[in-house]
Amino acid sequence: MTKRKISLLAVGFCFLLFAAACKKKVAAVPPPPPPPTAKESAPPPPKPVISAFTASPASIERGQSSTLRWSVENATSVTIQPGMGTVQSGGSRQVYPSSSTTYTLTAKGPGGTNEAIAAVSVTAPATTAAVAPPPKKSLGDMLSAQTRDAYFDFDKSDLRADARSALSGDATALKDIFKDFPNAKITVEGDCDERGSAEYNLALGDRRATEAKDYLVEFGVAAALLNTISYGKERPVCNEHNEECWQKNRRAHLSAAAGQPGGQP
Predict the structure, then answer these.
(1) 0.70 exceeded by pTM
(2) In this structure, how many other beta carbons lie within 10 angstroms of the beta carbon of residue 22?
């Protein structure tokens, strides 16, 4: 075999090896793993919303009153300062500022804190002539204007959250009222709806009045200035026969004691 033939055979053999190698499949590269998905976190609790906080009228003469009105959502604690303290999430209250005052409502809840202000501008009477002071309100009138009733569930005498809120505001109001009536005596009335016997409701009303009095004492009202009485179902404020009406009658109510100005006969 000549050298030329040997060379041709060698070249052909290499060509066959190269072709066979080209036919081999190249292993596929696996795709990259998908990116990790972010875990969805629970939405934060909503922030308290103050939908309304107004003073009407916003401008008064000294000695007149303005009415604060407010409405709050998503709050576990609502306070108005100065002078009012803890209040319910919605309501109204007459105020008698002696000078221009800015009231601040603070609402707190799991979602944070929110504040709003309502200003009352107080001016001196327009005339410089001597003006007789307005007639002094009676004890009964002041109690009606500045205190609220505490309401109870059916056949219950324990204080609900709204009842505690009402009574804490009443305690603040009573401290101011006692400044004008230092010798005043206050009666805490216990009332019931029409269901049940008279005897049973008298006992239930007594428990309600006692619970309300004890709560007022916890907030600094002197126990010696408070009496209790149960009227059972004998003094309803609503006479319809439905739950809405019955709820109005299940209450603890503050009144001037017998013999006081504006008191019960």
Answers:
(1) no
(2) 7
